[in-house]
Write a structure and sequence with these properties.
Length: about 425
Protein backbone atom coordinates (compact mmCIF):
# COMPACT_ATOMS: atom_id res chain seq x y z
CA UNK A 1 0.00 0.00 0.00
CA UNK A 2 2.78 2.45 0.91
CA UNK A 3 4.61 1.60 -2.30
CA UNK A 4 1.53 2.25 -4.40
CA UNK A 5 0.90 5.56 -2.60
CA UNK A 6 4.47 6.70 -3.13
CA UNK A 7 4.34 5.85 -6.83
CA UNK A 8 1.14 7.80 -7.35
CA UNK A 9 1.95 10.89 -5.30
CA UNK A 10 5.75 11.36 -5.35
CA UNK A 11 8.07 12.17 -8.23
CA UNK A 12 11.88 12.10 -8.40
CA UNK A 13 13.91 14.90 -6.90
CA UNK A 14 13.18 18.14 -8.75
CA UNK A 15 16.62 19.70 -8.19
CA UNK A 16 17.80 18.56 -11.63
CA UNK A 17 14.53 19.72 -13.22
CA UNK A 18 13.92 23.36 -12.21
CA UNK A 19 10.91 23.55 -14.53
CA UNK A 20 9.13 20.65 -12.82
CA UNK A 21 7.62 22.55 -9.84
CA UNK A 22 6.17 25.10 -12.26
CA UNK A 23 4.74 22.40 -14.51
CA UNK A 24 3.13 20.53 -11.61
CA UNK A 25 1.65 23.55 -9.84
CA UNK A 26 0.42 25.38 -12.94
CA UNK A 27 -1.12 22.17 -14.34
CA UNK A 28 -3.01 21.74 -11.06
CA UNK A 29 -4.02 25.41 -11.28
CA UNK A 30 -5.83 24.58 -14.55
CA UNK A 31 -8.52 23.19 -12.25
CA UNK A 32 -8.81 26.69 -10.76
CA UNK A 33 -8.94 28.09 -14.31
CA UNK A 34 -11.84 25.74 -15.09
CA UNK A 35 -13.71 26.54 -11.90
CA UNK A 36 -13.37 30.27 -12.45
CA UNK A 37 -14.82 29.74 -15.90
CA UNK A 38 -17.80 28.02 -14.25
CA UNK A 39 -18.14 30.78 -11.66
CA UNK A 40 -18.24 33.61 -14.19
CA UNK A 41 -20.04 32.08 -17.17
CA UNK A 42 -23.50 33.21 -16.05
CA UNK A 43 -22.59 36.77 -17.03
CA UNK A 44 -22.59 35.72 -20.70
CA UNK A 45 -25.54 33.33 -20.17
CA UNK A 46 -27.61 35.77 -18.12
CA UNK A 47 -30.27 36.74 -20.65
CA UNK A 48 -30.44 33.28 -22.27
CA UNK A 49 -31.06 31.52 -18.96
CA UNK A 50 -33.57 34.13 -17.73
CA UNK A 51 -35.52 33.62 -20.95
CA UNK A 52 -35.16 29.81 -21.07
CA UNK A 53 -36.21 29.28 -17.44
CA UNK A 54 -38.51 32.35 -17.19
CA UNK A 55 -36.82 33.73 -14.04
CA UNK A 56 -36.20 37.20 -12.55
CA UNK A 57 -33.02 38.88 -11.24
CA UNK A 58 -33.36 37.43 -7.74
CA UNK A 59 -33.74 33.87 -9.06
CA UNK A 60 -30.87 34.41 -11.48
CA UNK A 61 -28.68 35.69 -8.67
CA UNK A 62 -29.61 32.70 -6.52
CA UNK A 63 -28.72 30.33 -9.38
CA UNK A 64 -25.27 31.90 -9.47
CA UNK A 65 -24.98 32.07 -5.68
CA UNK A 66 -25.82 28.36 -5.29
CA UNK A 67 -22.25 27.73 -6.49
CA UNK A 68 -20.97 29.81 -3.58
CA UNK A 69 -23.24 28.22 -0.97
CA UNK A 70 -22.10 24.71 -1.92
CA UNK A 71 -18.50 25.84 -2.11
CA UNK A 72 -18.65 27.48 1.31
CA UNK A 73 -20.08 24.37 2.99
CA UNK A 74 -17.26 22.17 1.68
CA UNK A 75 -14.36 24.59 2.25
CA UNK A 76 -13.60 23.38 5.79
CA UNK A 77 -13.68 19.66 4.87
CA UNK A 78 -11.46 20.50 1.90
CA UNK A 79 -8.84 22.14 4.11
CA UNK A 80 -8.88 19.30 6.63
CA UNK A 81 -8.53 16.63 3.92
CA UNK A 82 -5.79 18.41 1.99
CA UNK A 83 -3.62 18.76 5.09
CA UNK A 84 -3.89 15.00 5.72
CA UNK A 85 -4.18 13.13 2.42
CA UNK A 86 -2.86 13.05 -1.14
CA UNK A 87 -3.48 16.36 -2.90
CA UNK A 88 -3.41 14.65 -6.29
CA UNK A 89 -6.11 12.15 -5.33
CA UNK A 90 -8.34 14.87 -3.89
CA UNK A 91 -7.94 17.07 -6.98
CA UNK A 92 -8.97 14.22 -9.28
CA UNK A 93 -11.97 13.29 -7.12
CA UNK A 94 -13.25 16.87 -6.80
CA UNK A 95 -12.65 17.52 -10.51
CA UNK A 96 -14.86 14.50 -11.25
CA UNK A 97 -17.71 16.01 -9.21
CA UNK A 98 -17.27 19.29 -11.08
CA UNK A 99 -17.41 17.54 -14.47
CA UNK A 100 -20.66 15.75 -13.52
CA UNK A 101 -22.12 19.15 -12.60
CA UNK A 102 -20.95 20.72 -15.88
CA UNK A 103 -22.57 17.91 -17.89
CA UNK A 104 -25.77 18.22 -15.86
CA UNK A 105 -25.85 21.98 -16.43
CA UNK A 106 -25.48 21.45 -20.18
CA UNK A 107 -28.42 19.01 -20.10
CA UNK A 108 -30.64 21.02 -17.73
CA UNK A 109 -34.22 21.26 -18.95
CA UNK A 110 -35.47 23.50 -16.13
CA UNK A 111 -34.35 25.82 -13.35
CA UNK A 112 -34.25 23.10 -10.67
CA UNK A 113 -31.88 20.83 -12.62
CA UNK A 114 -29.65 23.79 -13.45
CA UNK A 115 -29.61 24.74 -9.75
CA UNK A 116 -28.62 21.22 -8.65
CA UNK A 117 -25.88 21.10 -11.31
CA UNK A 118 -24.46 24.41 -10.14
CA UNK A 119 -24.37 23.03 -6.58
CA UNK A 120 -22.28 20.05 -7.78
CA UNK A 121 -19.91 22.42 -9.58
CA UNK A 122 -19.61 24.48 -6.39
CA UNK A 123 -18.77 21.38 -4.34
CA UNK A 124 -15.90 20.51 -6.68
CA UNK A 125 -14.73 24.13 -6.63
CA UNK A 126 -14.17 24.03 -2.87
CA UNK A 127 -10.96 22.08 -3.48
CA UNK A 128 -9.48 23.81 -6.53
CA UNK A 129 -7.62 26.80 -5.08
CA UNK A 130 -6.73 25.22 -1.74
CA UNK A 131 -5.20 22.23 -3.53
CA UNK A 132 -3.13 24.52 -5.76
CA UNK A 133 -1.77 26.43 -2.76
CA UNK A 134 -1.14 23.18 -0.89
CA UNK A 135 0.90 21.86 -3.83
CA UNK A 136 2.80 25.14 -4.10
CA UNK A 137 3.79 24.91 -0.42
CA UNK A 138 5.26 21.46 -1.17
CA UNK A 139 7.12 22.43 -4.33
CA UNK A 140 8.29 26.02 -3.58
CA UNK A 141 10.16 27.79 -0.79
CA UNK A 142 8.37 30.43 1.32
CA UNK A 143 10.06 33.40 -0.37
CA UNK A 144 8.40 32.46 -3.68
CA UNK A 145 4.89 31.85 -2.32
CA UNK A 146 3.45 35.29 -3.12
CA UNK A 147 4.66 35.02 -6.74
CA UNK A 148 3.34 31.48 -7.30
CA UNK A 149 0.07 32.41 -5.55
CA UNK A 150 -0.24 35.32 -7.97
CA UNK A 151 0.39 33.08 -10.97
CA UNK A 152 -2.21 30.57 -9.77
CA UNK A 153 -4.73 33.40 -9.45
CA UNK A 154 -3.65 34.58 -12.92
CA UNK A 155 -4.71 31.26 -14.41
CA UNK A 156 -8.02 31.53 -12.60
CA UNK A 157 -8.57 35.02 -13.97
CA UNK A 158 -7.88 33.74 -17.49
CA UNK A 159 -10.79 31.37 -16.92
CA UNK A 160 -12.88 34.36 -15.88
CA UNK A 161 -11.88 36.21 -19.06
CA UNK A 162 -12.78 33.20 -21.23
CA UNK A 163 -16.23 33.34 -19.61
CA UNK A 164 -16.72 36.88 -20.97
CA UNK A 165 -16.27 37.80 -24.65
CA UNK A 166 -14.94 34.40 -25.89
CA UNK A 167 -17.93 32.59 -24.36
CA UNK A 168 -20.31 35.29 -25.59
CA UNK A 169 -19.02 34.85 -29.15
CA UNK A 170 -19.26 31.06 -28.84
CA UNK A 171 -22.87 31.34 -27.67
CA UNK A 172 -23.72 33.63 -30.59
CA UNK A 173 -22.24 31.11 -33.08
CA UNK A 174 -23.46 27.76 -31.73
CA UNK A 175 -26.09 28.61 -29.10
CA UNK A 176 -25.87 28.54 -25.31
CA UNK A 177 -26.71 24.84 -24.97
CA UNK A 178 -23.92 23.68 -27.31
CA UNK A 179 -21.53 26.14 -25.68
CA UNK A 180 -22.15 24.41 -22.36
CA UNK A 181 -21.27 21.06 -23.95
CA UNK A 182 -17.97 22.52 -25.17
CA UNK A 183 -17.39 23.64 -21.58
CA UNK A 184 -18.01 20.10 -20.29
CA UNK A 185 -15.53 18.60 -22.80
CA UNK A 186 -12.90 21.14 -21.72
CA UNK A 187 -13.28 19.80 -18.16
CA UNK A 188 -12.50 16.26 -19.32
CA UNK A 189 -9.30 17.45 -21.04
CA UNK A 190 -8.09 19.30 -17.93
CA UNK A 191 -8.81 16.20 -15.82
CA UNK A 192 -6.54 14.15 -18.12
CA UNK A 193 -3.77 16.77 -17.90
CA UNK A 194 -3.84 16.71 -14.09
CA UNK A 195 -3.88 12.91 -14.05
CA UNK A 196 -0.75 12.75 -16.22
CA UNK A 197 1.32 15.61 -14.77
CA UNK A 198 0.47 16.39 -11.13
CA UNK A 199 2.26 14.76 -8.18
CA UNK A 200 2.07 15.65 -4.49
CA UNK A 201 5.74 16.47 -3.85
CA UNK A 202 9.32 15.69 -4.96
CA UNK A 203 11.01 12.67 -3.42
CA UNK A 204 13.51 14.74 -1.42
CA UNK A 205 10.64 16.21 0.62
CA UNK A 206 8.85 12.93 1.28
CA UNK A 207 10.09 12.43 4.85
CA UNK A 208 9.56 16.07 5.78
CA UNK A 209 5.95 16.09 4.54
CA UNK A 210 5.24 12.69 6.06
CA UNK A 211 6.35 14.05 9.45
CA UNK A 212 4.04 17.07 9.09
CA UNK A 213 1.11 14.81 8.20
CA UNK A 214 1.75 12.65 11.25
CA UNK A 215 1.91 15.76 13.39
CA UNK A 216 -1.36 17.17 12.09
CA UNK A 217 -3.11 13.79 12.17
CA UNK A 218 -2.18 13.41 15.83
CA UNK A 219 -3.70 16.78 16.72
CA UNK A 220 -7.19 15.90 15.47
CA UNK A 221 -9.71 17.75 13.30
CA UNK A 222 -11.12 19.98 16.05
CA UNK A 223 -7.69 21.17 17.16
CA UNK A 224 -6.80 22.11 13.56
CA UNK A 225 -10.05 24.02 13.17
CA UNK A 226 -9.56 25.74 16.53
CA UNK A 227 -6.04 26.97 15.72
CA UNK A 228 -7.03 28.23 12.26
CA UNK A 229 -10.52 29.59 12.86
CA UNK A 230 -9.74 31.39 16.13
CA UNK A 231 -6.84 33.33 14.61
CA UNK A 232 -8.04 36.95 14.02
CA UNK A 233 -5.30 37.44 11.43
CA UNK A 234 -6.94 34.80 9.23
CA UNK A 235 -10.39 36.40 9.46
CA UNK A 236 -9.17 39.93 8.75
CA UNK A 237 -7.27 38.64 5.72
CA UNK A 238 -10.27 36.62 4.58
CA UNK A 239 -12.68 39.54 4.88
CA UNK A 240 -10.26 41.79 2.98
CA UNK A 241 -10.00 39.22 0.18
CA UNK A 242 -13.76 38.76 0.05
CA UNK A 243 -14.53 42.47 -0.25
CA UNK A 244 -11.76 43.18 -2.76
CA UNK A 245 -13.07 40.27 -4.85
CA UNK A 246 -16.53 41.78 -5.30
CA UNK A 247 -15.82 43.37 -8.71
CA UNK A 248 -15.08 39.84 -9.96
CA UNK A 249 -18.11 38.23 -8.30
CA UNK A 250 -20.64 40.96 -9.11
CA UNK A 251 -19.47 42.62 -12.34
CA UNK A 252 -17.33 39.84 -13.82
CA UNK A 253 -19.47 36.86 -12.85
CA UNK A 254 -23.03 38.10 -13.24
CA UNK A 255 -24.13 41.73 -13.70
CA UNK A 256 -21.33 43.52 -15.57
CA UNK A 257 -22.73 42.98 -19.07
CA UNK A 258 -26.33 44.03 -18.23
CA UNK A 259 -24.94 47.03 -16.29
CA UNK A 260 -22.93 48.29 -19.25
CA UNK A 261 -25.80 47.66 -21.67
CA UNK A 262 -28.29 49.62 -19.57
CA UNK A 263 -26.21 52.39 -18.00
CA UNK A 264 -23.76 53.09 -20.83
CA UNK A 265 -25.89 51.85 -23.77
CA UNK A 266 -23.22 49.52 -25.13
CA UNK A 267 -23.83 46.42 -27.24
CA UNK A 268 -23.58 42.96 -25.71
CA UNK A 269 -20.28 42.30 -27.51
CA UNK A 270 -18.79 45.61 -26.35
CA UNK A 271 -19.96 44.96 -22.80
CA UNK A 272 -18.47 41.46 -22.71
CA UNK A 273 -15.11 42.82 -23.92
CA UNK A 274 -15.12 45.49 -21.20
CA UNK A 275 -16.09 43.12 -18.37
CA UNK A 276 -13.32 40.84 -19.57
CA UNK A 277 -10.87 43.67 -18.83
CA UNK A 278 -11.40 43.08 -15.09
CA UNK A 279 -9.89 39.64 -15.57
CA UNK A 280 -7.05 40.92 -17.76
CA UNK A 281 -6.24 43.43 -15.04
CA UNK A 282 -6.21 40.67 -12.45
CA UNK A 283 -4.11 38.41 -14.71
CA UNK A 284 -1.37 41.05 -14.73
CA UNK A 285 -2.03 42.45 -11.27
CA UNK A 286 -1.90 39.17 -9.31
CA UNK A 287 1.72 38.22 -10.02
CA UNK A 288 2.65 41.92 -9.91
CA UNK A 289 1.10 42.32 -6.44
CA UNK A 290 2.87 39.18 -5.24
CA UNK A 291 6.21 40.28 -6.70
CA UNK A 292 5.96 43.80 -5.26
CA UNK A 293 4.97 42.51 -1.83
CA UNK A 294 7.86 40.01 -1.80
CA UNK A 295 10.35 42.68 -2.93
CA UNK A 296 9.10 45.24 -0.38
CA UNK A 297 9.19 42.63 2.38
CA UNK A 298 5.76 43.94 3.40
CA UNK A 299 2.19 42.62 3.25
CA UNK A 300 0.07 45.26 4.98
CA UNK A 301 1.05 48.49 3.22
CA UNK A 302 0.27 47.42 -0.37
CA UNK A 303 -3.10 46.06 0.83
CA UNK A 304 -4.00 49.43 2.38
CA UNK A 305 -2.96 51.39 -0.72
CA UNK A 306 -4.96 49.08 -2.99
CA UNK A 307 -8.15 49.52 -0.95
CA UNK A 308 -7.88 53.32 -1.10
CA UNK A 309 -7.30 53.39 -4.88
CA UNK A 310 -10.14 50.88 -5.48
CA UNK A 311 -12.55 53.11 -3.56
CA UNK A 312 -11.56 56.14 -5.63
CA UNK A 313 -11.97 54.27 -8.93
CA UNK A 314 -15.39 52.81 -8.18
CA UNK A 315 -16.72 56.22 -7.09
CA UNK A 316 -15.46 57.75 -10.35
CA UNK A 317 -17.11 54.98 -12.37
CA UNK A 318 -20.43 55.39 -10.54
CA UNK A 319 -20.68 59.19 -10.53
CA UNK A 320 -18.84 60.37 -13.64
CA UNK A 321 -21.42 60.64 -16.46
CA UNK A 322 -20.78 60.01 -20.14
CA UNK A 323 -17.86 57.63 -19.87
CA UNK A 324 -16.76 56.26 -23.26
CA UNK A 325 -16.28 52.57 -24.00
CA UNK A 326 -12.49 53.00 -24.05
CA UNK A 327 -12.51 54.82 -20.70
CA UNK A 328 -14.69 52.10 -19.19
CA UNK A 329 -12.34 49.43 -20.51
CA UNK A 330 -9.39 51.19 -18.84
CA UNK A 331 -11.36 51.57 -15.60
CA UNK A 332 -12.38 47.91 -15.53
CA UNK A 333 -8.78 46.87 -16.26
CA UNK A 334 -7.46 49.16 -13.52
CA UNK A 335 -10.06 47.89 -11.06
CA UNK A 336 -8.98 44.31 -11.73
CA UNK A 337 -5.30 45.26 -11.47
CA UNK A 338 -5.57 47.14 -8.16
CA UNK A 339 -7.95 44.73 -6.41
CA UNK A 340 -5.44 41.96 -7.22
CA UNK A 341 -3.75 43.00 -3.98
CA UNK A 342 -6.19 40.59 -2.35
CA UNK A 343 -3.82 37.74 -3.29
CA UNK A 344 -1.35 39.05 -0.69
CA UNK A 345 -3.71 37.63 1.92
CA UNK A 346 -2.67 34.08 1.01
CA UNK A 347 1.05 34.31 1.80
CA UNK A 348 0.18 36.52 4.79
CA UNK A 349 -2.01 33.76 6.26
CA UNK A 350 0.58 31.12 5.37
CA UNK A 351 3.14 33.12 7.36
CA UNK A 352 0.76 33.62 10.27
CA UNK A 353 0.07 29.93 10.90
CA UNK A 354 2.02 26.66 11.41
CA UNK A 355 3.12 25.09 8.14
CA UNK A 356 1.20 21.90 9.01
CA UNK A 357 -2.04 23.93 9.02
CA UNK A 358 -1.53 25.61 5.65
CA UNK A 359 -4.63 24.31 3.85
CA UNK A 360 -7.06 24.64 6.76
CA UNK A 361 -5.78 28.19 7.46
CA UNK A 362 -6.12 29.19 3.80
CA UNK A 363 -9.65 27.76 3.96
CA UNK A 364 -10.58 30.69 6.24
CA UNK A 365 -9.80 33.05 3.35
CA UNK A 366 -11.61 30.80 0.92
CA UNK A 367 -14.76 30.59 3.03
CA UNK A 368 -14.80 34.38 3.42
CA UNK A 369 -14.27 34.95 -0.30
CA UNK A 370 -16.89 32.43 -1.33
CA UNK A 371 -19.21 33.67 1.41
CA UNK A 372 -18.94 37.11 -0.16
CA UNK A 373 -20.28 35.74 -3.42
CA UNK A 374 -23.01 33.80 -1.62
CA UNK A 375 -24.17 36.91 0.26
CA UNK A 376 -23.58 39.78 -2.15
CA UNK A 377 -24.83 38.23 -5.40
CA UNK A 378 -28.36 37.67 -4.00
CA UNK A 379 -28.16 41.07 -2.25
CA UNK A 380 -27.28 42.74 -5.56
CA UNK A 381 -30.23 40.99 -7.23
CA UNK A 382 -32.57 41.90 -4.37
CA UNK A 383 -31.55 45.55 -4.60
CA UNK A 384 -32.18 45.39 -8.36
CA UNK A 385 -35.68 44.00 -7.77
CA UNK A 386 -36.43 46.37 -4.88
CA UNK A 387 -38.47 48.74 -7.06
CA UNK A 388 -40.80 45.85 -8.07
CA UNK A 389 -42.12 47.62 -11.20
CA UNK A 390 -40.04 46.51 -14.17
CA UNK A 391 -40.70 46.31 -17.88
CA UNK A 392 -40.72 42.76 -19.30
CA UNK A 393 -39.58 42.17 -22.91
CA UNK A 394 -39.48 38.61 -24.35
CA UNK A 395 -39.77 37.17 -20.83
CA UNK A 396 -36.70 39.17 -19.70
CA UNK A 397 -37.00 41.92 -17.07
CA UNK A 398 -35.56 45.28 -18.04
CA UNK A 399 -33.91 47.19 -15.19
CA UNK A 400 -33.44 50.96 -14.97
CA UNK A 401 -30.34 53.03 -14.27
CA UNK A 402 -31.66 53.71 -10.76
CA UNK A 403 -31.94 49.97 -10.09
CA UNK A 404 -28.31 49.42 -11.04
CA UNK A 405 -27.08 52.47 -9.13
CA UNK A 406 -28.83 51.31 -5.96
CA UNK A 407 -27.18 47.88 -6.21
CA UNK A 408 -23.75 49.35 -7.07
CA UNK A 409 -23.63 51.12 -3.70
CA UNK A 410 -22.36 47.78 -2.37
CA UNK A 411 -18.91 48.56 -3.81
CA UNK A 412 -17.87 51.75 -1.98
CA UNK A 413 -19.12 50.30 1.31
CA UNK A 414 -17.13 47.11 0.69
CA UNK A 415 -13.88 48.94 -0.09
CA UNK A 416 -14.14 51.10 3.04
CA UNK A 417 -14.52 47.97 5.20
CA UNK A 418 -11.62 46.30 3.33
CA UNK A 419 -9.45 49.33 4.15
CA UNK A 420 -10.29 49.00 7.85
CA UNK A 421 -9.44 45.27 7.78
CA UNK A 422 -6.06 45.96 6.13
CA UNK A 423 -5.22 48.55 8.79
CA UNK A 424 -5.97 46.03 11.57
CA UNK A 425 -3.86 43.21 10.08
CA UNK A 426 -0.53 42.43 11.77
CA UNK A 427 2.49 42.84 9.46
CA UNK A 428 4.53 39.65 8.93
CA UNK A 429 7.41 41.21 6.94
CA UNK A 430 7.24 38.13 4.67
CA UNK A 431 8.42 35.84 7.48
CA UNK A 432 6.62 33.16 9.42
CA UNK A 433 5.42 34.66 12.72
Amino acid sequence: MDKMTNESTVIDNANSKPWLPWLVCLSAACFFFYEFLQLNMLNALNEDLMQAFNIDATQMSFLSASYFFANMIFIIPAGLLLDRFSTRTIILASMSVCMIGAIGFAMSANYEIALFSRILIGIGAAFCFLSSIRLASHWFEANHMALISGLIVTLGMLGGWVAQNPLTLLIEHIGWRHALWVNAILGVLIFLLIYLVVYDYPSDKAEHIKAHRQQISGSGFLTSIKHSYLNPQNWLSGLYTSLMNLPIFLLGALWGIPYLEEIHHLSRDQSSVITGMIFFGTVIGSPAAGFISDKMGLRKRPMIIAAIISLAMILWMMYQPGLSASTLAILFFALGFITSAQIISYPLVTESNPISLTAISISVIAICAIGGGAVFQPLFGWLMDFHLKHQVVNHVMIYSANDFHRAMLIFPAAFVIALICAMLIKETHCKRL
